[in-house]
Amino acid sequence: QLQLVESGGGLVQPGGSLRLSCAPSGFTLDYKAIGWFRQAPGKEREGVSCISSSEGSTYYADSVKGRFTISRDHAKNTVYLQMTSLKPEDTAVYYCAAAENELRLFRLCVSEEYDYWGQGTQVTVSS
Predict the structure, then answer these.
(1) pLDDT tens across 82-126, in order?
(2) What's CA 33's distance to the chain center, in Å?
(3) 5 phi-psi bin (left φ>0, alpha ψ -120 to 50, beta other)
Protein backbone atom coordinates (compact mmCIF):
# COMPACT_ATOMS: atom_id res chain seq x y z
CA GLN A 1 0.00 0.00 0.00
CA LEU A 2 1.32 3.40 -0.96
CA GLN A 3 1.75 5.64 2.04
CA LEU A 4 3.27 8.90 3.10
CA VAL A 5 4.93 9.44 6.45
CA GLU A 6 5.18 12.85 8.07
CA SER A 7 7.65 13.73 10.79
CA GLY A 8 9.01 16.79 12.55
CA GLY A 9 5.98 17.99 14.45
CA GLY A 10 6.04 18.95 18.09
CA LEU A 11 5.55 21.67 20.66
CA VAL A 12 7.17 25.02 19.96
CA GLN A 13 6.88 28.48 21.45
CA PRO A 14 5.40 31.35 19.47
CA GLY A 15 8.02 32.77 17.14
CA GLY A 16 9.80 29.44 16.90
CA SER A 17 10.49 27.20 13.92
CA LEU A 18 9.88 23.63 12.87
CA ARG A 19 10.67 21.65 9.75
CA LEU A 20 8.21 18.99 8.70
CA SER A 21 9.28 16.12 6.46
CA CYS A 22 7.19 13.97 4.16
CA ALA A 23 8.61 10.72 2.84
CA PRO A 24 6.81 8.05 0.82
CA SER A 25 6.70 4.34 1.37
CA GLY A 26 6.81 2.34 -1.80
CA PHE A 27 6.90 5.03 -4.46
CA THR A 28 8.73 8.09 -5.64
CA LEU A 29 7.56 11.64 -5.12
CA ASP A 30 9.05 12.62 -8.47
CA TYR A 31 6.51 13.75 -11.04
CA LYS A 32 3.84 14.21 -8.39
CA ALA A 33 2.33 17.34 -6.96
CA ILE A 34 2.87 17.46 -3.20
CA GLY A 35 0.77 19.33 -0.74
CA TRP A 36 0.82 20.19 2.93
CA PHE A 37 -2.57 20.53 4.55
CA ARG A 38 -3.60 21.14 8.13
CA GLN A 39 -6.65 20.68 10.28
CA ALA A 40 -7.22 22.36 13.61
CA PRO A 41 -9.85 21.13 16.10
CA GLY A 42 -13.31 22.18 15.01
CA LYS A 43 -12.08 23.53 11.68
CA GLU A 44 -12.05 22.27 8.14
CA ARG A 45 -8.88 20.99 6.54
CA GLU A 46 -7.06 23.71 4.64
CA GLY A 47 -4.28 23.76 2.09
CA VAL A 48 -1.16 25.31 3.57
CA SER A 49 1.43 24.97 0.83
CA CYS A 50 1.64 22.91 -2.33
CA ILE A 51 4.19 22.39 -5.09
CA SER A 52 3.50 21.19 -8.61
CA SER A 53 5.07 18.06 -10.07
CA SER A 54 7.27 20.16 -12.35
CA GLU A 55 8.14 22.49 -9.41
CA GLY A 56 7.16 25.33 -11.66
CA SER A 57 4.34 26.37 -9.36
CA THR A 58 3.96 26.75 -5.66
CA TYR A 59 1.02 27.84 -3.56
CA TYR A 60 0.95 29.30 -0.08
CA ALA A 61 -2.10 30.14 1.95
CA ASP A 62 -2.24 33.84 2.77
CA SER A 63 -1.92 33.03 6.46
CA VAL A 64 1.54 31.46 5.97
CA LYS A 65 3.07 33.51 3.16
CA GLY A 66 6.50 34.77 4.09
CA ARG A 67 6.75 32.34 6.99
CA PHE A 68 6.53 28.84 5.46
CA THR A 69 8.59 27.37 2.63
CA ILE A 70 7.93 24.15 0.74
CA SER A 71 10.82 22.32 -0.91
CA ARG A 72 11.82 18.99 -2.40
CA ASP A 73 14.97 16.91 -2.07
CA HIS A 74 14.89 14.52 -5.00
CA ALA A 75 17.93 12.59 -3.81
CA LYS A 76 16.21 11.86 -0.48
CA ASN A 77 12.76 11.46 -2.04
CA THR A 78 11.45 13.83 0.60
CA VAL A 79 9.43 17.02 0.69
CA TYR A 80 9.84 19.55 3.48
CA LEU A 81 7.78 22.32 4.99
CA GLN A 82 9.98 24.83 6.77
CA MET A 83 7.87 26.81 9.22
CA THR A 84 9.17 29.95 10.88
CA SER A 85 7.68 32.70 13.04
CA LEU A 86 5.10 30.22 14.24
CA LYS A 87 1.90 31.51 15.79
CA PRO A 88 -0.63 29.83 18.10
CA GLU A 89 -3.09 29.80 15.20
CA ASP A 90 -0.72 27.48 13.31
CA THR A 91 -1.56 24.75 15.82
CA ALA A 92 -3.04 21.82 13.92
CA VAL A 93 -2.42 18.34 12.62
CA TYR A 94 -0.35 18.69 9.46
CA TYR A 95 -0.76 16.21 6.62
CA CYS A 96 1.23 15.72 3.46
CA ALA A 97 -0.38 14.40 0.32
CA ALA A 98 0.65 13.43 -3.20
CA ALA A 99 -1.28 13.71 -6.45
CA GLU A 100 -0.73 11.46 -9.45
CA ASN A 101 -1.94 14.00 -11.96
CA GLU A 102 -0.35 17.24 -13.00
CA LEU A 103 -2.39 19.99 -11.34
CA ARG A 104 -3.16 23.42 -12.64
CA LEU A 105 -2.29 26.25 -10.30
CA PHE A 106 -5.90 27.00 -9.39
CA ARG A 107 -6.32 23.33 -8.25
CA LEU A 108 -2.85 22.87 -6.80
CA CYS A 109 -3.88 23.04 -3.16
CA VAL A 110 -7.33 21.50 -3.40
CA SER A 111 -7.39 18.43 -1.18
CA GLU A 112 -9.79 16.51 -3.44
CA GLU A 113 -7.09 16.43 -6.12
CA TYR A 114 -4.72 14.38 -3.94
CA ASP A 115 -4.51 10.60 -4.05
CA TYR A 116 -2.17 9.60 -1.23
CA TRP A 117 -2.14 10.90 2.32
CA GLY A 118 -0.06 10.54 5.42
CA GLN A 119 -1.32 10.00 8.95
CA GLY A 120 -0.45 13.50 10.07
CA THR A 121 1.90 15.08 12.58
CA GLN A 122 0.80 17.36 15.40
CA VAL A 123 2.16 20.89 15.56
CA THR A 124 1.39 22.83 18.74
CA VAL A 125 2.45 26.44 19.13
CA SER A 126 2.10 27.54 22.71
CA SER A 127 4.01 29.30 25.45
Answers:
(1) 999 999 999 999 999 999 988 988 999 999 999 999 999 999 999
(2) 11
(3) beta
